[in-house]
């Protein structure tokens, strides 16, 4: 089992592609960091997620 973890955040997908290549090259795991807020596809800005409960 590998002790390498490649954690990434990608708003546009470019960093995700690179992170996947790095994880494969080093034999590590891959983890996407998801923001507390999400991107609004129409305006390109980030908006807060609603919390329930």
Briefly, what is this?
The protein is an alpha+beta fold.
Any overview of this molecule?
- 2% of the residues are buried.
- The chain has a two-stranded parallel sheet.
- A hairpin with a 6-residue loop joins strand 3 and strand 4.
- It has 53 residues and is an alpha+beta fold.
- The protein has one domain.
- It has one helix at residues 14-26; strands at 5-8, 29-32, 37-39, 46-48.
- The radius of gyration is 14 Å and the shape is elongated.
- InterPro entries: Flavodoxin/NO_synth, Flavoprotein-like_sf.
- It holds the Pfam family Flavodoxin_4.
- One of its GO terms (molecular function) is FMN binding.
Index terms:
alpha+beta, 53 residues, two-stranded antiparallel sheet, two-stranded parallel sheet
What class, by secondary structure content?
Answer: alpha+beta
The total beta strand count reads 4
Q: Kindly report how far apart the N and C termini lie.
A: 37 Å
List low-pLDDT spans. none
Instruction: Work out the strand percent.
Output: 25-35%
Question: How is this fold's topology laid out?
Answer:
Elements: E1 5-8, H1 14-26, E2 29-32, E3 37-39, E4 46-48
Parallel strand pairs: 1-2
Antiparallel strand pairs: 3-4
């Amino acid at each position: 089992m590998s002790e390498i973890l490649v954690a990434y955040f990608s708003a546009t997908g470019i960093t995700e592609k690179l992170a996947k290549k790095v994880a494969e090259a080093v034999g590590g795991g891959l983890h996407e960091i998801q923001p507390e807020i999400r991107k609004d596809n129409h305006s390109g800005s980030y908006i807060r997620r609603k919390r329930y409960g």
